[in-house]
Design a protein that fits this description.
mainly alpha, 89% helix
Length: 63
Amino acid sequence: MKIVRLLLGLVLPPLGVFLTVGAGPTLLINILLTLLGWLPGSIHAVWVIAKHEEQMNAERGSY
């Protein structure tokens, strides 16, 4: 599933962010960055997806 989200984050950045963190301020930031250009939105989406996975792995490891 992570690979699908990363690919969606590259092609359709807001969709990748939405599938990762849901609706919220992170999605709004990504939509604004995507409106400024595809590249800023994609970079932000990949960063959000990677950080989310990192946090999920850290939480699993601490228990």
